[in-house]
Write a structure and sequence with these properties.
This protein is α+β, with helices and mostly antiparallel strands and 1096 residues long. The protein has 41 helices and 35 strands.
Length: 1096
């Protein structure tokens, strides 16, 4: 560096500049944990010049074997100390290379490599690598997932990922668990299945037929699939499959339709595909043997309608004629469908008889083919015929014979309700309701469920309510029938209600009967019985609330009625104040659930204006509020109480903790069925919450941090992360309480995250670097050390101080220290110089290093003010000063670089003080002020330099712009100057001819030009008034030659003095005057030679 500056100071610029290239433009350093990395990089030159220079690393962890280098190529060896850094640490840095070929930045990236596990597919050291492995080989990924080596991969991943896996190891490590893990860490999407359509239709299957349905999945991964069928005719070949069985994204599921299980008509079946996330249904329909009667159910339907209308007739809702007409019409339709049915023929006759249309009934009976002993005849149908004939004849003897026949037949067919019905109608003893009811109860044991059967039983109770002595199965069926068809009389309804009130337990069927009875007769007794039974059955669902509400409004005195009123009430639908009697009842205490009790108090606060009532309640409300706060309960009603009674002055530490928990409470819910509980993995990985899940009300959890993770556990023991959709709802967010908790936290130091506080020292910074360190503390540490210890040049302290400087953390002490010792990239030193100038701190040392480094690298920019600052100091090194002025003067002359005036003022000052400067500085000064105004104090300097440069024949065309007398003095006034700037290393030849007025000159003269400075060439000519210079220049680099365009220069000004001026004047004279002038010129020439002698 010193040699180069010394050469520049003498005006010697023949140093040869290398053309620098780097084999790598960005170095990537992969460093093992706790290792010291050794590396190198190579600098080459594309020409033959040797490269010399220095390297400045940006990181204190980088140590160079030698800070300087020389050679072509040159190898720079270094180490990177990775000790103390955690895997995953990445540092972006740079090497600043200042060399004879310029200044360059070579970036590097130091990466502390994470631990890895080697698999058959290469390294796995991140979750992204694990995902790629799972895509390639799911089985190998699953083995790695189950291995404890998997911890090494996650050790330096996001903590949420590590803690999720750590907890999952306690639950399950099967393929499904790995699928959930990958979904939970956002490495893949959840698998969902799709079907090509909604179903398939088959027709007339005669033999087992195979069908195929294609399952399609949306992405890679693992999920088990259970296949089940609905419909005996469907069968699948496999009931358990998984996505591992898929070919690509498809799997063909084979199923079989078995004809032996098909019935005539439409057969419906479903194939269900169940995964942990969804259930898909594929419908299969088979139309089998479509030639069947679509109306085969119509007769049954019409008969049922006839019976229903008959009940309406018995209840008095329709008259007999209306019922008979409708029944005849429907039976006619039935007989058109069932033309061969003798039973329907007799039923129609029976209807005519009930409607007193005897002739029509007789006509049907006369046309009935009765044959008692005919083979295949139904004895019951025959008995039905005999019963009808007995009714028409009204003959006692005949009636007795028919009754005898009926009883004999009934002995053989005791399960026939129709036979018993006919006997009851004919036998006089069954006119007694007791006897009739007795035989009906016996018939019930045979499973009789006919409508007429229940009607006959009801008529017994209607006639004699006291026959209802118990509420057994038979009695409940009869009462259900009677209440359903609105047959009940008011007397019987009240009797039933009274009887039901004596029951010891709740019966759902009794409740439904009473409910229907109350809809018929809104009697207080029925209402009282309903509420009594509901309370006995502990019925607290909101569907029962209307009964309790009506009982309260009726002011019933039923034990615990008001409690059940509150319990069954749906708070979300309740608007307005509660009845005053409710407030009065609970004034002195209650045993309500906290939700209901809170609603009671909140309703009182919201709607009641009774101040006395509030004062009576206040104490128990306040006590209740604090109790619920400590239990972390939260409801809409409790929000009102908390806002009213939780005052800052009454909050202690325990209450503050409870309030904080409530403020971070969330309700979570999902539409996915069969969830058992909700788990929360906290930010620190602990599993402190395992909340049972209810499909109706969800679950309430606390989420203190956005890093907390929600995990779902299903009834079958599976765990779900983000694979199922769920909703979260914040239950209580009150800025007042949040601010209250925060204020208390600041004052009492509650809930602050505890952890080891690392003190900022030089040792800790040397070990772990500046990552995460408080900038202000680091700055104070450096500033105090500099001010108190005067440490001298310390590489690590210098690094820290400059890093703080880059972050705008500095003071005069640190700036002075940097100015004294810092040496780095030119851009950084210039920034430091600017800041030091702002703080008025002496900056000449930095300025000296900047100028020195710029000259060495020949990479000079925006440095004039820096040099001026350095020059005006008392310590400027004369060689550096000369070298800089020479270099920038050369740049100005050769390349036209713009320089500030201060540089030329300094050159003029140096010349005025007779300091030694290279000629190039003087030429630059003359060229800068040529043709322009200049200060008076440098006029003498310019005049002297012009004489000096002309004496040395270092002449430039710019000189011609100075004063005429100065040019005459140096004999330039009568000259014409041609200049040319060639490429470096080229040879220049001038071709010219001087043409006089009216004269022709053949050919060009040629002359090899000698450079006046480096690649600048100058040639002087003397032209007379009638002459012109015609020239062009040939430039040759040894391989090829190029010629410039021809130029012509004329002598446009008259020269009246001097030798050539006199000759030039003679050219324009007449011959007589010219002779006289020539004689005078000759005399003067002889005289001059005698007076002025030349000394050699």
């Amino acid at each position: 560096m010193k040699n180069k500056i010394q050469k520049f100071s003498k005006g010697n610029f023949r140093t040869g500049r290398p053309e620098v290239i780097f084999e790598e433009t960005n170095l990537v350093l992969i460093i093992g944990e706790g290792e010291v990395y050794r590396g190198s990089f190579i600098i080459k030159s594309e020409n033959e010049h040797v490269i010399r220079g220095l390297v400045y690393p940006s990181s204190f962890r980088v140590k160079l074997k030698d800070s300087g280098f020389e050679g072509n190529p040159a190898r720079v060896e270094f180490t990177y100390d990775g000790r103390g850094l955690k895997p995953g640490h990445v540092e972006e840095g740079k090497f600043t290379v200042v060399c004879t070929g310029g200044e360059y930045e070579l970036s590097f990236t130091a990466i502390i490599e994470k631990p890895y596990v080697m698999t058959t597919y290469g390294k796995v050291q991140s979750t992204d690598d694990f995902r790629k492995l799972a895509v390639k080989d799911y089985s190998e990924a699953a083995r790695l997932f189950r291995s404890r080596d998997f911890y090494a991969i996650l050790k330096y991943e996001n903590e949420r990922i590590f803690y999720l896996y750590d907890n999952m190891r306690k639950w399950s490590l099967e393929e499904q668990a790995m699928e959930e893990f990958l979904v939970g860490i956002k490495q893949k999407e959840c698998i969902f299945l799709t079907l090509p359509g909604e179903g398939m239709l088959f027709e007339d299957i005669l033999e087992s037929t195979k069908g195929v349905v294609t399952l399609m999945k949306n992405t890679w991964g693992y999920v088990p699939i259970h296949i089940e069928t609905e419909g005996r005719f469907l069968k699948v070949s496999r009931q358990e499959i998984s996505t591992e069985d898929f070919v690509g994204n498809n799997y063909e599921v084979e199923y079989f339709v078995r004809p032996e299980f098909l019935h005539v008509g439409r057969n419906y079946g479903v194939i269900r595909f169940q995964t942990p996330y969804e259930t898909l249904s594929y419908e299969v329909e088979v139309l089998q043997n479509q030639e069947y009667d679509e109306n085969h159910h119509v007769p049954e339907l019409l008969i049922a309608q006839i019976l229903k209308e008959y009940i309406g007739f018995v209840a008095g809702r329709i008259d007999l004629k209306t019922w008979v007409d409708s029944a005849v019409e429907k039976m006619t339709a039935v007989r058109r469908i069932e033309t061969q049915s003798e039973l329907y023929q007799l039923v129609q006759a029976h209807i005519y008889m009930l409607g007193d249309r005897i002739e029509e009934a007789k006509w049907i009976l006369e046309n009935y083919n009765y044959n008692r002993f005919a083979i295949g005849k139904d004895p019951i149908t025959n008995c039905y015929y005999l019963f009808l004939t007995a009714q028409i004849r009204d003959n006692k003897a005949h009636t007795d014979r028919v009754l005898d026949e009926l009883e004999k037949t009934y002995i053989r067919h005791q399960d026939s309700w129709l036979l018993l019905y006919m006997i009851i109608q004919m036998d006089p003893k069954y006119k007694n309701p007791y006897k009739k009811l007795e035989v009906l109860e016996q018939q019930y044991e045979y499973g009789t469920e006919d409508v007429l059967f229940y009607l006959e039983a009801y008529l017994c109770y209607k006639e004699k309510p006291i026959l209802l002595r118990k509420l057994g199965e038979f009695e409940l069926l009869v009462l259900t029938f009677a209440s359903k068809y609105r047959l009940m009389t008011k007397e019987l309804a009240l009797y039933v209600a009274n009887f039901a009130s004596q029951q010891k337990t709740f019966n759902e069927r009794v409740y439904r009967i009473l409910k229907r009875l109350y809809n018929m007769y809104e009697e207080p007794m029925i209402l009282n019985t309903i509420c009594t039974l509901l309370i006995k059955g502990n019925k607290t669902s909101s569907e029962y609330f209307p009964w309790y509400q009506k009982a309260v409004e009726e002011d019933f005195r039923i034990a615990r009625l008001y409690e059940y009123y509150m319990i069954a009430m749906d708070e979300t639908r309740m608007r307005g104040p509660l009845p005053r009697k409710i407030y009065l009842y609970f004034m002195h205490g209650n045993t309500l659930d906290y939700r209901k009790e809170a609603f009671l108090y909140a309703n009182l606060l919201t709607y009641s204006d009774d101040q006395a009532m509030f004062l009576s309640y206040r104490e128990q409300i306040v006590t209740f509020t604090w109790e619920q706060l400590m239990k972390r309960h939260i409801t809409e009603a409790l929000k009102i109480l908390y806002k009213r009674f939780c005052l800052p002055e009454e909050m202690d530490e325990k209450r503050m903790k409870a309030m904080r928990d409530i403020c971070y409470s969330y309700e979570v819910s999902t539409k996915v069925p069969h969830m058992r509980c909700v788990l929360v993995i906290e930010k620190d990985g602990a599993l402190r919450q395992r909340i049972p899940y209810d499909e109706e009300s969800g679950a309430i959890i606390q989420l203190y941090d956005k890093e907390s993770r929600i995990v779902w556990e299903s009834m079958d023991g599976r765990y779900y992360t983000d694979s199922i959709a769920y909703e979260t709802k914040r239950l209580f967010y009150e800025p007042r309480f949040m601010e209250m908790c925060k204020k208390y936290e600041d004052e009492a130091g509650m809930w602050k995250k505890t952890g080891e506080v690392v003190e900022v020292t030089f040792d800790t910074l040397r070990e772990s670097g500046l990552t995460g360190a408080d900038e202000r503390k680091v700055f104070r540490l450096c500033s105090e050390k500099i001010r108190e210890e005067d440490p001298g040049e310390d590489a690590f302290l210098l690094y820290l101080t400059f890093e703080m400087f880059k972050k705008q953390q500095y003071d005069k002490a640190t700036l002075t220290y940097l100015g004294e010792y810092f040496c780095g990239a030119t851009r950084d030193m210039k920034h430091l110089w600017e800041v030091m100038r702002e703080y008025e701190i002496p900056s000449y040392k930095v300025a000296e290093r900047i100028i020195t480094q710029m000259l060495f690298s020949e990479n000079i920019f925006d440095e004039e003010k820096i040099f001026e600052d350095y020059y005006l100091s008392d310590t400027a090194y004369f060689r550096l000063k000369q070298a800089y002025l020479a270099f920038v003067s050369r740049e100005y002359i050769l390349y036209g670089r713009e320089l500030e005036t201060c540089v030329f003022r300094i050159i003029a000052r140096e010349c005025d003080q007779k300091e030694e400067l290279p000629d190039v500085c003087k030429v630059a000064l003359l060229c800068y002020y040529a043709g322009s105004d200049y200060p008076a104090d440098i006029e003498a300097v310019l005049h002297q330099l012009l004489r000096e440069m002309c004496e040395k024949q270092i002449i430039f065309p710019a000189y011609m712009k100075y004063k005429e007398e100065w040019l005459r003095e140096v004999q330039l006034y009568d000259k014409t100057i041609v200049s040319y700037q060639a490429k470096e290393g080229s040879k220049v030849k001038l071709f010219y001819k001087i043409k006089g007025s009216g004269k022709k000159t053949l050919g060009y003269h040629s002359e090899m030009l000698v450079p006046v400075f480096e690649n600048l060439y100058v040639k002087q000519f003397v032209l007379y008034a009638d002459e012109e210079l015609d020239y062009y220049i040939q430039e040759s680099d040894g391989k090829e030659s190029t010629n410039t365009e021809k130029q012509i220069i004329r002598n446009d000004h008259a020269i009246l003095a001097g030798r050539f001026g006199r000759i030039n004047a003679m050219v324009q004279m007449t011959p007589a005057n010219r002779n006289k002038a020539m004689m005078e010129y000759e005399e003067e020439d002889i005289l001059a030679k005698k007076m002025f002698k030349l000394y050699e």
